[in-house]
Amino acid sequence: MKKQNKKLYCKLWCFFLILGLPLLFYDLSYGDSLYSKIVKGSALYDGKKYDEAIKSFIDAQIESPENPKLKYNVANTHYKMKNYEGALKNYQDVAATAQDIHLEEKSIYNMGNCMYRQGKLEEAVAYYKKALDLNPNDQDAKYNLEFVREEIKKRINQAKQRENKQEEKKSEKQEGKKEQKEEGQQQSEKQQQKKQQKQQQASKEKQEKASRKQKEITKPMSPEEAERWLRSLKEDKKKHKEREREKVAGSLRTEKDW
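Below the sequence we write its predicted structure tokens.
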């Protein structure tokens, strides 16, 4: 089954990439000038000199501007030049004016190819279906219709996959932000705890220092310290008395005898 699908895919791809777009030929009832221009344009077309070929066909249109077969050749040449808008316009003109239903169907089929080349897949499907309405036995139109439908399904699936990936990335981004926020909150809480611990430690050290100082103040003296303290008091008292006597002696006056 896979081999059959692969073979069908390659065949379809060939219809798009190696589309022959055969030119329509004319009988000798046309004038020599017109016929020679058509022959020249066809030879240039076969030689893949599309720029020169289209000039020859357009020159021929001056003598036969409403000729649908000539318009069809101009359209084919535009298509080969990848000027799909110009090709589409000429194919539409042929389909609208052709008296030959076979030529009309071929033009509509090629309009589907132009739409595909421009990425307008839904429009391409519509033209292939219309071509099959005119000629249900057109195998090329059937193959291309199936090919484009599968391409549409593939692109829809790819679009869904891209959308799912975008949603996943968006979800991951939001989850990442949430985790960062939680980490930030945890970090803030840790910093706050460290700050409180430092404050508690500083307060504890302050209390211990004050307690040690109080103990030093209320600590009982040893006998040696008491003895030194008493001697110091006695010396201070003795010095104080001496200063008082000196002060009193300096203030007395000597009486005079009469």
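The chain has a mean pLDDT of 82.
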